[in-house]
Each structure stands twice: as C-alpha cells, then as structure tokens.
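ok new one. same drill as before - structure tokens go in, u give me an amino acid for every spot. 92 of them this time. try not to just spam alanines like last time pls lmao
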C-alpha cells in the first residue's frame, strides 16, 4: 500500500467536506431568512390580534352603555306602570 492513494483519498474527502460545509452554510442562510420572514408575519398577526382586542374593548364599552340605558328605560316604564296602577286603585 503506497502513500499516494491515501493522499488522493484524503484530498477527495477534504473537497467533499468543503462542499458539504458550503451547502450547509447556504441552507443555514436560507433558514435564517425564512426565520426573519416568519417573525415578520407573526408580528403582523400579533398586531392584528391587538387591533381585534381593541375593538372588543370598544364593543364591551358600548354594551355597557346599552345595558345602563336599558336599566333606566326599564325603571321608567316600571315606575309609570306602578303609578298608573296606584292611581287606578286609589282613585276612589
């Protein structure tokens, strides 16, 4: 067994390792850029959810106003019914 075939084999292995290293570096760069794109998309989605949450807060505030107005309206109707019934009952 001579030393020359071993050196040739080692050179081929080194070349193959360099190619693998280059390809893995390219894949790593692509994954890094994809990760940045995903983070940007998730940021957009989070922003949309923030907008939706703000709208729900507005809707809750409006429903609170409607509930308060309903209570006032129910109170006025109830008091007018009671006064009408009392006026009919105690008219004599």
């Amino acid at each position: 067994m001579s030393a020359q075939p071993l050196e040739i084999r080692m050179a081929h292995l080194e070349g193959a390792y360099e190619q693998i290293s280059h390809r893995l570096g390219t894949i790593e760069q692509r994954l890094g850029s994809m990760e940045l794109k995903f983070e940007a998309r998730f940021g957009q989605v989070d922003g949309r959810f923030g907008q939706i949450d703000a709208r729900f807060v507005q809707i809750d505030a409006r429903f609170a106003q409607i509930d308060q107005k309903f209570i006032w309206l129910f109170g006025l109707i109830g008091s007018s019914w009671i006064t009408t019934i009392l006026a009919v009952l105690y008219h004599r």
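The mean pLDDT is 88. and btw Residues 29 and 35 are 10 Å apart (CA to CA).
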